[in-house]
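Hi everyone,

Forwarding the result from last night's run.
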Amino acid sequence: MLRKLVPLALALFLSLPVLASTPVNVNTADAVTIAKSLDGVGPAKARAIVAYRKAHGHFKRVEDLARVKGIGKATVEHNRKDIRLGAGK
């Protein structure tokens, strides 16, 4: 039984980086990049982020993303470490 679990555990461990979020500048990235980079943000929510940015200008604070329809505070907090607003931010 252990011989069957070891390969499964190894496969799951190696797949974790694929599931992890990736830093992304939400003020410059396109919707496809945002969707691929942030956990819990699919194509529709990513398009909403880009549309909000175009209508209201760049996000000044990470918390401002919660103003986008479909993006709640929990999603923002979950991705906080990977959300970039500009150079060095």
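Helices lie at 2-19, 31-37, 43-56, 73-79.

Cheers,
N.
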